[in-house]
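User: I'm curious whether this sequence folds into something compact or stays loose and floppy. Could you predict its structure so I can see for myself?
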Amino acid sequence: MAIHGEPLTAGSAPAEADVLCVFVHGRTQSPEDMMEQVVGRLSVKGVSFCLPRATGNSWYAARATDALTDVTRNELRVSLNYINGLVGALRQAGGAAKPLLIGGFSQGACLSLEYAMAFGPWNGAMVNLTGCRVGQPADQRPARDLDGLPVYLTGSDQDPWIPVSAFAEASEALGRARARLRCELFPGRTHQASEMEVAALDAMLGDLVEGSRPFRRVAA
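Assistant: Here's the prediction. I'll summarize afterward.
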């Protein structure tokens, strides 16, 4: 697989931002699609966004729910190392102490989840809009202790790419990893980032900008 492309940046400059965010696009998509569908719909200020760009608009060729092969493992390794390099560069430019939110949509959500299991936890949060683990439960996959990392995971019973069974398996895996987990399944929702999901991401970024931990407040 070729080395991935130059990311798109948006929002505040890293050195001036309160929060850093890496948000990963899905299969057949681009950073520009994520600007239109997710980032451009946010109201929060003080965030520096880095939107990675996959060569050929795909992070790996297989479906997320296929059993892992040597080819897929290598594609994941290349893509995860690329994301990790962007995270390092963003932190170097913005300051390693700043909160970091890593997330994505669809294949980007799956890649973000695998990133957490390989490199997590970190100071901040994770958002997986329509995501699951890559591979099958029987596959050997990394599983880090996420130590209370706030994680928002979503899915739909009508999604053609991420079935409910994969959403449930991801929820269980994140629970075992000790994530501070919020899961939402949207009945009838098509393969998209809904208004409620974008609003949840907006609120999590807002909490981090204010110096609060997402999901800290519990309703009475």
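Summary: The two ends are 50 Å apart (CA to CA). Residues 5-209 form a domain with the Rossmann fold fold (CATH 3.40.50.1820).
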